[in-house]
Amino acid sequence: MKRKILALAVLTLVVGCHTEPDILINTPEINFDIFWNDFDRNYSFFEQKGIDWEQYKQTYRPRIHANTSPKALLDILSEIILSLKDAHASLTANSNFISYDYTAGHPKNSPINLSNYVTLQSAGSVLKHGIIRGTVGFLMISKFQGSDSDFTITESIFTDWQNKNLKGIIIDIRGNGGGSDALASHIIEKLNDSPRIYSKVKYRNGPAHNDFTDWVDRYTPASSTTFFKGRPIVVLTNRYVVSAAESFVLAMRTIPGVKIVGDTTGGSSGNPLNRRLPNGWQYRVPRWIEVTPDYTVFENKGLYPDVPVWLKQEDVTAGKDTIIEKALELIN
Q1: Is the dihedral of CA 246, 250, 256, 260 positive or negative?
Q2: pTM
Q3: Structural domains in the chain plus CATH codes
Q4: In this predicted model, what pLDDT tens digit does every residue of 217-251 receive, in sequence order?
Q5: Which of 39, 76, 144, 320 could form a disulfide with 179 if both were Cys (CB 3.0 to 4.6 A apart)?
């Protein structure tokens, strides 16, 4: 009985206060209960996706007992994670990483023929840049991660391009899985002269699945000194664009003169909490809902481009990138 009381106290502390004590009881039952209760208290898309979370407990909890093996527990938690169809809900168990594949069944539209259009130079750990045909700046951002210096360097790149009087710029974020909104803001600010609402978010803040904060407007960062004002800017996207990269698209498309070209984005914002179970496994719980300024939910749907372009295999084989070619057409 004392063991059960202690286990309940630990579970209450983790779920109710959202902190982790130094010592947690490591049993299959406690691991499952912490996992289930944490999602119950924090996950943001139960109602949006029509998920009966209590039914999950009734289905899976009876399969958990003191002798449940780590593999069996991993299989159960993995099944739950994947059923949410949420790229920001994940489980890391030793060398196993379990997350929903939001790109499955969609064309990749990856930038595999870039060298036929531009010679790229690396700038920091995540940026590459060059000039196409002597008239169009090209900036490729692999992810919004790294240090501030990786992104503040764009000011010198943009200055050089503006001094060369280039017609416009292409920002290629195909394959960018996100990272930090703060790092993305370094680039947005240099191209935007006025704060604009680019999305709205609300957070889970109570025990009921419909307990949320009020909507909070998110504004684009802006500067009185901007680059390429009045000149065309094209952002290239594909299904691999999610998270902070998707927020980047939301922000950029509010700037006059910007066009989004390519494929629909992945449709996952999430803003997850990072958690750890007593057995050491780590998991993430998405805790907000992000919508467009007109309250359109893009979770699992993505952001449709202004100009949709999909790469055909025959074009790829011929060394072409028709997404870049459409961007060049719009600029020229």
Answers
A1: positive
A2: 0.89
A3: 2-99 (no CATH), 114-269+288-331 (3.90.226.10)
A4: 999 999 988 999 999 999 999 999 999 999 999 99
A5: 144
